[in-house]
Structures are given as structure tokens and as C-alpha cells.
Amino acid sequence: MKILMVGGGGREHALVWKLLKSPKVGEIHCAPGNGGIGRVARNVPLAATDIEGITAYAVRERMDWVFVAPDDPLALGLTDALEAAGVRAFGPGRDAARIEGSKVFAKELMKKYGIPTADWAVFDDPAAARDCVRAWGAPVVVKADGLALGKGVMVCATLREAEAAIDAIMIERRFGNAGQRVVIEECLTGPEVSALCFTDGKTVVPMVSSQDHKRALDGDMGMNTGGMGAIAPSPRYSPELAGYVEEHILKPTIAAMAREGCPFRGVLYVGLMLTEKGPRVLEYNARLGDPETQAMLPLLETDLVDIIEAIREERLADCKIEWSAKSAVTVVMASGGYPGSYRRGLPITGIEAAQSLPGVTVFHAGTAWDGERFLTAGGRVLGVTALAGTLADAIDRAYEGVARIDFADAHYRTDIGRR
Ligand code: AMP
Ligand code: GLY
């Protein structure tokens, strides 16, 4: 079987690594891939958002499957384009991907179907949005409606910050057309956990829980990033909580999407806040998370090809999906300065030494291969994943791996999983 992976980060490296373990997989190509992916698969110089280019490539190369991992190509309808061209694609279609691509769509869905979330209001007029935050008071959350590289959400401690956020989104258009509408939300507090599931549009199979670490610095300080580390499972996610979330959030969401005429097939990611009043949905993603995937997939014992085939054929109910009882930790090593500006092209050493530790796998994100060595090529450079019997051992093992890797200006959090 020939598979084309779309994307080029740590999540996609973990997916390629997992798919290569399947006896059914012969060859993997990846658009655009990265330095590490290129050592085990064929990198294809096409952007993940090049819908026409990727579709044409998949047809020409007779791909058996295309796995669409990132949010942008899903929102742009890559899955629909591939299927229309006769290529099997994993990932929701454009209509279903709106659950991530439009916060207004997601909030309206939750309201209509009674799915627990923060109170909210939507505005296409900045003056009305400002009146709303003045009436509600601070703290308050201001969100751009559309996709904004994970940066369109501003948790505002003061009214002045909230008004500045509305101006940045709606008037300065910092996130372009994503800021045509703004969602004002009640500010919730509590620990966060990610609940993901596989779904064929009818059956929901929860995945192992996980927890991202979004802030750049230890102690959840500093700027929001794409994610500086992850653990799986989350020790906060008890079996009771998992049962509640499955019945009151995951299943109702998938049933709602089917009833709205846009059945969701693929992986649904639900970002939850565990408030005193119970779990509340903060966001939906129409895909796997990064870096959660790098912690979750090594715990998946079932062949991923069997799962994606069962989803496409709508027979997920018959597919037995098994997870290891171990714990996994992923520590992201980033370029100094990330998420701001940083240097590129710095040589990386010690990846093999890290991987020689038992249970340690290094997933590449922003790396390039110059024919002899790996160089840094992005903000998040590597994710060092360790598996162990307990979370504490997995944390220690992951940081042993991190200590063996070196590149100039490397930055990583030292408290992943410790809070
Ligand atoms: P999102 O991109 O929607 O996941 O939001 C990014 C982060 O903003 C979340 O992980 C939360 O930490 C925070 N956030 C989003 N919505 C709320 C809310 N209603 N109350 C408090 N924090 C929130
Ligand atoms: N780690 C959060 C995300 O992938 O959206």
C-alpha cells in the first residue's frame, strides 16, 4: 500500500512512524515532510495547502490513501478534492471541518444540541462587541471566528485588554478574514484536558486522553505556542469523567454533525476545561493535535491502517482498538526565541544517542537534512517522546533523552507532566 501524508511537523512524523509499523504499508510519501520524515519516507515539495498539486500528485503516483493531518487543508476541502478524483482520503470533508474552522459554527452547534460550553455571544460589529465586554466585565475571552494558527484566542484579564483584542481582530485584522466575526466568551477556570476520538460518523471510539502544554515557559508562563509538550494519558481524566464526556460531549457532537447533514469522519479533538460545574468544551479540532499525537500514537497498539479503513467503510463498531497501559511524555525542543523570531540552520547532535535509551523516540518537526546531518529549520525542532510504566518514569526518561540532544539556543520546558 502507498500512502501520502499531508503535513510536515512532529505530528506527521509520528503518523508516518506509526504507519510504517503496519505490514500493509509499503511506501510513504509526505508533502512537504521534514528532515526526519525524509529519512524514512519520500518528501514531496508541495505545500500542505496546495489542494490541486496534492490531488494531482496522489492521482499520478497512484496513492492508495492520503492522510490529511493539518487543519488548513481540511478547511480548504482537500479531502473532498481527493475523493472526487477517486483517491481515498482520511480526514473530514470541508463541511464537517467547519467544527474547527468556524468558532461560530461550533458554538451554534453546541447551543442547539445542549453540549456544555462557555456562555458566549457573536458580533460582526466591533462597537457591539465592545458594548458586550463592558456589560460582562473582565476577565473575558475574545476569539476570532476563523482559523488563526492557534493564535486567535485572547484570554483578557482587564476590559482594556479585551477592547484591544477586539480592535486587533476586527479592525487591524491581525488574523485576516478570520476576524470578520468575533466570539466573546465567559472566562472559565480549571485544568485542561484533550479528549479525542476516532469516528466514522456513527460510532465513537475514544482515544487515550492527553494534555498539551501551550505556554512557552515553565509554570505555564510566557506566550502561547503551538505546544511545548504533552502527556498521555492525563492523570486527571478518571474513568468516570471519560464516561461522562463520551455520553454528554463526544457522542452528541457526532450525532449532531450527522443530523446537520455534515457527518464527521476522522479524528475529532475536543479541548475541555474541567470546571467546578463539570467539563466544558473550549474548542473542537477536526484532526489530531500537535504535540499530543507524538505522545498518544506510541500508546496505540492497533494497526492504524485497520482503523482508517474501518472509518472509511463505516464499520468502526467492529474494529477493536487497543491502547497500552503505559504513560507517554513528549518534550518539545524549540529554537531559542520561539514563538517569536529565531535562527535556523543550526546543526543538531545526539538524536541517535537519545533514541538508544529504552522507550525513547525522537520525532522531527522543524528540521532539515543536509546530506550528512540534521539542521534546525523551524520553531519547534524536535519532540522527544518516552514511554514507561508510570508518568514519573516517562518524564525522567524523556528528559534523559533531551539531555543527550544539542543545538545552539535550544529551548525547552523543564516541567512537562510535572504539574
Ligand atoms: P483554543 O485555541 O480555543 O484552544 O484556546 C486556546 C486556549 O485559550 C485554551 O487552551 C484555553 O487555555 C484558553 N481558553 C479558550 N477559551 C477559554 C474560556 N472560555 N475560558 C478560559 N480560557 C479559555
Ligand atoms: N496542540 C493543540 C493543537 O494541535 O491544536
Outline the structure in words.
With 419 residues, the protein is an alpha+beta fold. The chain folds into four domains: 2-93, Rossmann fold; 125-180, Dna Ligase, domain 1 (2-Layer Sandwich), CATH 3.30.1490.20; 192-318, D-amino Acid Aminotransferase, Chain A, domain 1 (2-Layer Sandwich), CATH 3.30.470; 327-403, Glycinamide Ribonucleotide Synthetase, Chain A, domain 4 (Alpha-Beta Complex). 32% of the residues lie in helices and 26% in strands. It has 14 helices and 23 strands. The protein has helices at 10-19, 37-40, 51-60, 71-75, 78-84, 94-101, 103-112, 126-136, 159-171, 239-259, 292-296, 304-312, 351-355, 391-404, and strands at 2-7, 27-32, 42-43, 65-68, 89-90, 120-123, 140-144, 153-156, 182-186, 192-199, 204-206, 211-212, 215-217, 221-224, 229-232, 266-275, 278-285, 327-334, 347-348, 360-364, 367-369, 374-376, 380-388. Helix 1 links the parallel strand 1 (2-7) and strand 2. The radius of gyration is 21 Å and the shape is globular. The model has no long low-confidence stretch (mean pLDDT 96). Glycine binds next to loops. Adenosine monophosphate is lined by residues 118, 141, 150, 153, 155, 185-188, 192, 214, 271, 282-283.
